[in-house]
Amino acid sequence: MLSFLTYIIVGLIGLMMGTVYKRSFSNIEMLRISPYKVARLYGIIVLLSAIICGYLSYKAVAAFTAQDAMPEDKAHFFQDYQSMLVYFLNLGFILMIIFSNLHSFAAKKISWFLYLQTFGIYAAFAVIDNFFLQDTFFHFKKMHQLWQGEFSFANILGYFSLGVSASLTIFNAYMTYWGLQK
Prior knowledge:
Low-confidence stretches: none
Number of helices: 6
Helix content: over 70%
Order of helices and strands: HHHHHH
Number of strands: 0
Mean pLDDT: 87
Radius of gyration: 19 Å
Largest sheet: none
Shape: elongated
């Protein structure tokens, strides 16, 4: 559910920023935003997002190795860390898209590298979450008789997440390009 709301927010950000660039370019230009400063802030956001998501991914896997915990407790620990991972991954995606759009606006050209990096970081942790962590959790639950079903939908959600995030990244780049054209 959180990812779905994130996708809606990112789509609306693209619409809003493209429209703002197109309609009120002369008023926003008074701010004189430096592309270097925006890129530096973007770099800080990327670094923090990667560190936080990497740490939470590690802690999610480490939750299975808790010595004195029952399997149900290990599953709860995993779900807590995995939920935090999804939250920070989506928050980072929103912030990276915003700063990619701002950098493109400040540079007055599309910053393809930032958009590719935004998608790359989101995709890397989405793959870790949906294909590795969820698969590990699925097998853990089957091994400890905590799973009632037969099939895990995490891979399907992973492919959906990658497709939608790629589409939204391209959409934001296009809307920024559209906004910068006179």
